Each structure stands twice: as C-alpha cells, then as structure tokens.
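User: Round two. Same drill as before: sequence, then structure, for each protein.

Assistant: Same drill it is. First protein:
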Amino acid sequence: MSFTKKAKKIIFDISKKNKAFRVVSRGARDILYRAKMTADDPFGKIDDKLVYFQTFSGRGYSDSPKAMYEYMMKAPEYKDFRFVWSFKEPEKFRFLENDRTTLVKFRTKADNVALRTAKYWITNYRMLNHQYPRKGQIYVQCWHGTPLKRLGYDLESSDNVMNSGQEIRSKYKSDAKKFSYIISPSPFTTEKFASAWNLVKTHQTHKIIEEGYPRNDRLINTTPEERTELRKQLGVENKKVILYAPTWRDNQHTSGEGYTYKTEVDFDKLREALGDEYVILFRAHYLVANSFDFDKYAGFVEDVSSYSDINELYIAADILVTDYSSVFFDYANLRKPVIFYMYDLEQYANELRGFYFSLDELPGPIVRDEDALIAEVRACDTWQPDQKYEEFCAKYNPKDDGNASARVLKRIIVTE
C-alpha cells in the first residue's frame, strides 16, 4: 500500500470514529480546495454559450446530463452553444470530442477554469463542497432517480457510517443554496425533493422543475432495432436477460476505498436452475468501490458495473431484479417485469434508510430467498403489466413521455 493510501486510510478510520475531527478536516480541505480554484489565474468572464456537464462526479457519460447534451447537439436553437464534459478518465470518452465539445479531467485546473467560466452547470450528483457557482451562473441539479429510500432531511436514522444526521442535513442545506434548479419527474418526487432539501422552510420550492426526467427520453423513444443491436453488442442476443441492480448499504464502508458491497445471492443455485436459458447482467451501484470476480460463473453472470449508460442495459434486459435502488422507477417506463430481492428488508427499513411509501405499491413481487426468486423469474414467461403496474407508472412517471429534455432546457436556457 502506498504512503498516500495509508494516509487516507488513517484519516478515514479517525473520521469514522470522531465527528469533531471529521468536521474540522473536511472544513480545512474545502478551504484549501476553494483557495486552489482561485489561485491559478483570475476569474474569466462568464461565457453565456458554454455548458459544463458532469455525471456521478466524473465517473461516466450517462443519465440526464447526457440526454440534455445530445438534445442540445441536435437542436437548431442551441447551435451556437459549446460544451465541456468533465471525466475522471477522459481518455475513455474521446469519441465525444468535436468542434463544439471539449473534455477535461475532473478536479484539474482545466476543470476549475471550465466551472468558473461556463454559464450553465448540468450534473446529476452533488458538486464538491468547495465548488460554488458565481453570480450569474446557473447550476442545474438533475439528481439521479425517483427516491424510494429517504434522503437528506427526511432520514430517520441519525447517522450512517461516514456522516452524522447533522452532517447530512448540512450537506443538503449547502446543496440547496448552490443549485438554481433541481429536476423532478412527478408530483410525488417534487414533494419529496422539497422535503429532503428543506426547500419549503427555506422558501426555495421555485427551484424545482417538474417536467420529467430527460434521461428517460431514451427509454420512451427506443426502437426494436436498437434493442436488437444492444443485445448483440452485449453478447446476449440468444438468452433471456436478467439485469440485477442492487443498491449500496450505508453501513458497508472500507477505509481508504469507499462503500463496498457483498453479493448475497447464491449464484450456484441460480445457475443450476436458470443457466441454460438466462444470463445475469450484474450492475453494482455507482458508489460501490469494490470490484467483482464472476469468472466462476462465466457465461451466466457478467459484471456490467463499469458500463457507462444503464439505460442501454434496461433496454437490453427482459427482467429487472433489484432491492431498494431507484432503478425500477425508470425501468417501469419499458413495461417489463420487476422483481424485488429484499433479503435484508427489516434491517434496511428500520436501521439504515426507511422508505417514502408503502412497499405494497411496488410494481412487482418482493422475494426473500433464491427459491422464491427463481419461481418469480419463471413466472415472467407469461407476464403482462397489470392495472397496479399502470397505476404505478401514472403516479411516478407521468411526465416521462420522451420530450423531457426539450421542456427542461426551455425552462433553464433563454436562447432568444
């Protein structure tokens, strides 16, 4: 282990045990970062035709920022705009470079310059603590899903492994002050975002744009030909495809690495029962730091955690298996079956997060073990969306109609 990793591990270990140290160290770090942002060169003039994009702190090219970028690249009303994409590994995304699009490396001088000069910031995740928009800049928080599990001010548990309840609320309070807009797909999500970010008490509900999730335009507008091509690219065209996408656990964290995840599924049992007909695409949550070795299950389980755009996995899949991840809200737009594998339901609901609504509303069965999971997978052969499924979509995805990108952009960018 390098000296840097050892130092990070020591700091993480102390931070998890000592709230005062954690608060002081984070504060000192943020002051240093903010000073660095302004020390290299003076602030440049804000460019009204420059848009800065980022997803999951530079981890990939996906989600609503991707949808909004691709719409702007095609729409004539935005032909004079230029774009910057921030990535942790920009070399993986060189295909995006063109005469209107530049790539920068996340948390570098070029990244800081783009942030200081772009009129618009469009992201789906928290900006770093020291990154504050200047007067005249517009920061659009797209977020990354309709919430099932509680967020921010709504968390009933006082702490998680890396933050106290007070620290979590402080982060959400700071974020709410920063963003100019936050995007919502439904009245339900609008209500929960207003509560989670404390927007009612702080008189900031005007920041919510309820026009649908731009990222779901792709799901609504996809064609059978696109699905066939994606399945070929993934090498699953001759199989029934199960997308398994569990979320992370607040209490699973490894010092110096980040949040980890232990797969609780008995893949040997699933392969014995389903292996001839099915393939499982395993998709870990973006916050999960550890990697997964499925060599033992080659041909049956494929790790697609690093696949940039989960929308393409939704389109290719026949069945979604998840637990408490918000992925099922988006996937439901495709009118395909969802199974909820909640082996740790009591602990998750009572000790970690808690939910915004009754699980009776979920658009699919809850199972607790592999036998029940296998039975429900088999039942999908004759599955059709029922009235409960359609009512779920009407409540949680009412504005996902394939045109959300256009509506959201009209709300945030004046082109005349």
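Second protein:
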Amino acid sequence: MPNPYAQIFAVRGAKGFTVAGLIGRMPVAMTNIGIITMLSATHGSYALAGAVAATFTLSMALITPQVSRLADRHGQRRVLPPAAAVSVTSLLLMLLCVRFDAPYWALFAFAVPAGTMPNMSAMSRARWTELLRGSPRLHTAYSFESVADELTFITGPALSVVLSTMAFAQAGPLAAAAFLALGVTLFVAQRGTEPPLQDPDAHVAKGAGALGGTLLVLVLTLLAGGVIVGAVDVVAVAFAESLGVASATGVVLSAYALGSAVSGLAFGALNLSWRLHTMLVVAVAGTFVTTLPLLVVGSIWSLSVAVFFAGIFFAPTMILVMTLIERTVPPSKLTEGMTWALTGLTVGTAIGTFSSGLAVEEYGTTGGFLVAVGAGAAALALVLVFTPLLGRAQQAREEHASEEAAGAGG
C-alpha cells in the first residue's frame, strides 16, 4: 500500500513551501513566551511581562486574519513580505527598548504592530488546498499540517526560553524575528505553488461568509479545544509541583503532544467514508469523554496516561475543522477562514491558561481540570446543536461544485 505522506510530498513544489512554512511558523510559538522570559529577567516583573505578551497575543488575534484576508485578495507574495517586515521591525524596536531601558509604554506601543505576524500555518494549508483540491490526499496534507503545528508548539517555546536564559534576555524574541524573516522570504519565493487569486463575487453557499454561520461554529469549536490545551499546560505544572516532582511536568506535556501527533498521522492515512460533520461529532465527543479521567488521577504516570488519550482526539478534531472550512468557506476567503480557526485555538489556549490558573488558586488542581471538562462539554454541545447547519453547508457547496462542473462540461 503506497505511503500517503510520500504521495503528497511527491507533488512538485510541496517540499519547498513546506520547509519554508515550518521555519515561518516558529515565531508564533516562540514570541509570547519569549517576551515573558525577556521582560521577567530584565525588569523583574511578571505583571509587566504578562501584560506586554497579552497585548501582542490580542493584537495578533485581531490583525492576523486581516493579513490573511489581504493575501486571499491580492496574493501571498504581495502581502506577506510587508506584513512580516512590520512585525519584525516592531519586535526589533521592542528589543532596543528593553536594551536601553525605554519607558514601559514603548513596549506596549511596539507589541501592537508586532501582531501583523502572518499565520504561516494557514498559508501552507491554502497551498495544499490548491494543489490537492478534490483529492483524498488533501486530508493527509491537513493531517501533516496539524502534526507540524503540534511539534512547533512543543519545540518553539522551549527553544525561546533556552535562548533567553542561556544566551541573553532578548535572544528568544530575536530568534523569532529571524525565523519570521527567513521563513517568509523562502515561502514567497516558491511562486509555483502560490494559490491563484479567487473571484470574491463568486456564488457561495449561504452562511459561508467570513466569521459567520458555519465558520463561527468551527472557530468556537477550536477555541474550546484551546481552552483544554491551556488548562492541561497549567494544571500539569501545578499537579507535578503538588507531588514534589516539578521536573516531571515535561513528561506529562510530552504525553499529550505524543497522543495528538500519533493520532494525527494515523488519521491522515485513513480514508473514512463518514460524513465530515458526523466525524466531527465523534471526535469532539471523544475529546469531552477523555477529559473526565483527569478528575481522578493520583500520580504523574496516571496523569500522563490520561492526557495521552486526551491528546488522541485533539489532532483529528483540528483536521476535521480545517477540512470543513475548505468544504464550506468560499475559495476567496479560504486563508482568512483557516486563520480565524487557528486564531480561535490561540485565544482559547490563552483563556484556558488564565481561567485554569485562577481555578487552581481557588480550588486546587481538581478545579483546574474542571475547566478542561467544562470546555469539552461546551464543545460537544456546540457541535451537536449545529451539526445540521454544518451538514447543509457542506451539501450546498457540493451541489454548487457539481453545477459548476456540469456547466464547464456543457
């Protein structure tokens, strides 16, 4: 049986933009923790560090989808370089402010434009979509991208912290800026795989507009998933510290990432015949059910096993969300739609980190795990209520595609 991953990388140009995209997506995982590590070391204030990092994250959540919208409208090679240049320049100016002890307001002032950082995960997915549209291998490509995102968010923060603690305080954010500049430069040089501009006025299915209808449901689904990820990150630290084995936190988080990566690769190799919205319900139900054992764990090893199985449903959920976006969002808004979904995941992670931290302070680790359980329940309720909408939107797009094919054939 042919290796499906070997098949997708046999497509001309796929390896080139994939490598560039992997380099270019590292800054998203590195910058937030890099700012926190840098400012806590140079200014001795976690409050200031957290506030500046939160400003950057919020700015990125609001601006990045607009960068993707412009990329859909005007092309990646026209939009990505100036957007990346603004982000890189702003990060470098922030580092200079730290170096020369500038007023605090200057840090916030440069954190905002630093949020123009393009979402290279969405840009890569847009290229895969154009290369493999209508092929079952597109499912495999989305699976690879989800696993790549997972690995990025494992290695990126660790690299940023190591650089800022072992070299000099600004090294983490500086490396993020370098990765962004290099990745975007290499990515836009791959012109042969750049998606063509789409007609924004083409007929699309009802409810498929930007951040409305089906897309909003899918964004909120990933937001809830992000809350679970953020809660697991925080409570794993608190749980390990409560047992006096803080160094074991890495084992727990690695187990979660391993479960997600293994399931993502396996899911990408499958070609299931179920309807996408039905598979999404199953995946989200699995996500909810696997949060329940977190409430009864009693050791690092039992927690590691529990989060491993919780991670198994994360990657398939993300893959299905991205596939549904491709099937329901207009082609002229594809990159923007995917960026909104990934932004939802990022915002959800921030919410999960904050809310679970408060819960741990008030009710202990069980309170933190209840945040994850509540997010899983909310996600399941959401997809159960809106499954008919997702099904209708997908059917409408399929019917429209059939009509276009018939018209072209006639």
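The radius of gyration is 21 Å.

User: Perfect.
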